[in-house]
Every structure is written in C-alpha cells, then in structure tokens.
Amino acid sequence: MSEPRSLTIGWLYPNLMSTYGDRGNVICLQRRCQWREIPVTILPLDQQTEADHFSKVDVIVGGGAQDRQQEIVMRDLQGAKADTLRQKLDGGTPGVFTCGSPQLLGHYYEPALGQRIEGLGLLDLVTKHPGPNVSRCIGNVVFEVTASPLAEDLKAMLGQPPIIIGFENHGGRTYLGNVQPLGKVQSGYGNNGEDGYEGAFYRHAIATYSHGPLLPKNPFVADWLIKTALQEKYQTEINLMPLDDSLAQKAREAMLKRLESVV
After folding, report:
1. 197-198 and 163-170 as β-strands: parallel, antiparallel, unpaired?
2. End-to-end CA distance of the chain, in Å?
3. CA 184, CA 143: separation in Å to the nearest integer?
4. What is the pLDDT of residues 224-242, one digit of tens each?
5. What CA–CA distances, in Å, run from 46 to 103, 104, 109, 124, 158?
6. CA–CA separation, 96 vs 102, rounded Å?
7. Which residues are known to be catalytic?
8. Residues paired with 138 in a beta bridge
C-alpha cells in the first residue's frame, strides 16, 4: 500500500512575521489538508533553522512585520538560506507572502527612518516608505486576480473571474518592475495607491498586501496552493476533494455588499 501524499508547510519566521493575524494562513492550509486526510507538517523557518531545512518544504508562507522585525529577518535571510529559498521559488514551489514578506523578496525596502534594507532580489520590485508624516494605506481591499496562469487556474476552479477580498495596512509603497502584478484593484490602495495594481506573482509565488487573513477569506486560493504543491512534489495531476465553503462565501458576499454601499 502506497504512502498517502503529504505536504510540509514552511513558515517563515513565525515569531517575527505574523502581524495582523497572518498565522491564519498557515492554519487554513493545515486544516484544509487535514479535512482531506492529507498529512501535513508545519516547519518553522527562522534564525535557528539550518539552510538545508528550507529545501524540505512543499509550500511556503510568509507574513507581515514591523520595520524592526523585518530588518532582523532580512539580515538573517542571507547566504545559504537565501540561496535555497531562491532555488525553491525559482523551481516552482508555491507560496503566499503577505505585506512585509514580498518586501524582503524584492530588491530593497526603504523604511520611514533608517537605512535601506537589501532584499533577496527574487522579485523585480522595490518598496519605499514616504515618511513618518504620511498616512498609511489602511482598509479593506478588493481586487481581481489578473496574473497568468494563476487567474486562468482560479477561474477554472470557480467558474468566474477570481476576486480577492482582504485587509491592507502598510506604510511602504511598492513599485513593480519586470514582474506581473497579482491583480487589479477594485477597492482600496493596493501596492502604492497610484497605479491600481495589487501584489505580484512569480512562478507559483503570490505576493500581496492583503491580510484578512488572506486564505480563510479566499479559500479557493488555499486550495490552489495545496493542489499546486502536491502536483509539484509528486509530478502528477491532483484533484482535491471539495469542501463546504458556504459560510466563507456568505462572508464574502456580505463584505462585497458592504463595500459597494460605501462606494
């Protein structure tokens, strides 16, 4: 009898980068695997983790952080750790990176105060804080996923264009270079409040300012991550057992109705 297909979730710096409930993304992935009887392991990737452990994960989750915590992470995530993470994402390992995490995947982050913090340069983007006296980008955010092939995959799952609902709270403004935006903003600020884009998408990596947490509010994204991780790991087509997401769908409909009334 063959062993059941399993997944290992790599959780980036859980004690430093879990601002605004982003640990909910890890819990969501874990529960949706367990409900399908898919064995799942959560592997913290932090300062005590050896670089080779980064190569053992099948899906990666990174959350937000304050400037000080983010600086600690970005100074630790260097050398062999950075190289292994870069190899994983370049190789197609899926992941979801929220708020501070995309900033460390970009070229650099310029905080409101202090020196520029260099990133991994995996994503062609930069983030700049306009200064301590400038208002933060705070509030509910809604955007349509436009990045390919993610948009096509999600539309095939849903039968309609994929709409993400989240909550953003960021001082930094992100500007994209040669990388796809994740989506087009319908309500909220997005990357910078100027160009109408939200997030970025590279290979199978989702970068976004959307908290919420993101995955419980948008469970179809969680299922895409699980399915993609299994397909990448086992190199075979995967069909996930459907789950009852009616409660999440009602919450989404209520939020969309509320935001429409505001607009």
Report:
1. unpaired
2. 57
3. 5
4. 999 999 999 999 999 999 9
5. 17, 14, 20, 24, 35
6. 9
7. 99, 211
8. 169
